[in-house]
Amino acid sequence: MRTLFVTGPGGSGRTTLAAATALAAARRGSRTLVLSADPVDSLGTALGIRTGAVATEAEANLSALRADPAEDFRRELLALQDRFTGALDLLGAGRLEAEELLPLPGARELSLLRALHTAAVGPRPRGGAPAGTAPGGTAPTGTAPAEAGTPGEGAGPVSESVTGSALPYDLLVVDLPPVTEAIGLLALPGQLRRYLARLLPPERQAARALRPVLGRLAGVPVPTEALYEAAARWDAELAAVQGLVESADSRVLLVAEPGPAGAEAVRTALTGLALHRLDLAGLAANRVLPENAEGHWAQELAAQQRKTLAEWRGGGLRVARAGEGAAGTGAGSADAGLGAASAEAGPASVDAGAGAGSAAPGAGTRSAGAGAAQVPLSEVPHLGRDPQGTDDLAALGQVPPAGGGPVPEWPVVDRLAADGLLLWRIPLPGAAREELDLVRRGAELVLTAGSFRRIVPLPSALRRCRVAGAALRDSVLELRFAPDPALWPQEQ
């Protein structure tokens, strides 16, 4: 099953274009499900139907489903309360009833993750372990936490058993929240798996068998069996969602109105998507006015839109692709399988220049990135009214984007013979020097770009190095590492 995540700045028409894209795909013969977690039924308004927590058929090949965050929150909290009834009774806690539970902030995002989990592996059996777990509540083989550098940033690889779809659809279109929240939501499963791996590392799970002995003889506090089983269930469910997000069949469609605010939102989105290595399939410029718009205000707005569209067509929508020169392809990889982690920690300053340690004219400005690929751009006309119903959606002419090439790797370039350095090149289209912050924490790099942050495991060769500097050039962040004499293998 292919997945298309639709996002953009608030008020840009994300839900409308998600519905229009799903409709176009359905009319081309793809069995399509469009999914939303908006508490207001804007998806149903666009399609001309009422949507709810059960998939509703809008027309042939097209179904719509709107997750219910309030009901999901009540169900999950009551299930958690039932699981820990014994402990709560010992504390004298009063039981919460379903009628008094109101969803907390974040319930919408969690409800959407639950819906994505259902799309990935099917609904959880009532009273049983979630799909994707092995008997006894453990995660399937391949989902146990692993060393940094594997998918999930230390959380372990995603098993093939949790990445296939359990729903009878060819295409899943997901109406996401505004772009900053959406990128954080898509990155959340991997980050939560990382937290679980840190809190309950696999090497400590051997204590499960020794728990009774340790508790009686030494009074050592050991997590209960139920905690390990719950962690395994959570990891399996998060792995399923992470597998769906990171699948080669999953892409992101940006929606924005052309104009100064839309251009800035798109620039920010390009950086966030690249930081989390999410594949951008295209940009839909929404509510584009005709060039012959009548009236002074309409002509002014149309001129502003045309200016932004020209900028986007002229290179303002370029991102790195696998095989493109912007990411330093063609240079040899220095990842030689060295596994020791450095104890170095601290921030690294970012230069803005054309070379290591140099500052070129125009340093700090944003550039498209040499050798990058142009993001497909589609123009969606303004209908003069809010689209409502399938006829209006069809008039928008929005078709499912074909998508680009594979998301580029972040290569390590061997410059040891030339200048004694290893270079790690990270494509960050749209990034600005003043928005970047880097902190080395042992075998990890905490990378901040504007409002986005990601903890990235260092490639194994770089763990025996110290940070020698950083530079932003042609929308590629180039980190310089020098071998640490105390850790680097010495020639005999």
List the helices and strands and how they pair.
Layout: E1 2-7, H1 14-27, E2 32-36, H2 42-47, E3 56-59, E4 62-66, H3 69-83, H4 85-90, H5 107-121, E5 171-175, H6 179-199, H7 207-217, H8 225-246, E6 250-256, H9 260-275, E7 280-288, H10 296-316, E8 318-319, E9 345-348, E10 373-374, E11 377-381, H11 390-395, E12 412-415, H12 416-419, E13 421-427, E14 436-441, E15 444-449, E16 452-457, E17 465-473, E18 476-483
Parallel strand pairs: 1-5, 1-6, 2-4, 2-5, 6-7, 7-11
Antiparallel strand pairs: 3-4, 8-10, 9-14, 12-13, 13-18, 14-15, 15-16, 17-18
Shape field: flat
Quick one: how many beta strands?
A: 18
- End-to-end separation in angstroms reads 54 Å
- The residue fraction in helices comes out at 25-40%
Query: What's the rounded overall pLDDT mean?
Result: 79
CA-atom Rg in angstroms: 25 Å
Largest sheet: 8 strands, mixed
**What percentage of the residues does DSSP assign to strands (E)?**
15-25%
Order of helices and strands: EHEHEEHHHEHHHEHEHEEEEHEHEEEEEE
What structural class is derived from the secondary structure elements?
alpha/beta
Strands of the widest sheet, in order across it, are: 3-4-2-5-1-6-7-11
Count of DSSP-assigned helices: 12
Low-pLDDT parts are 125-154, 158-164, 323-345, 354-371
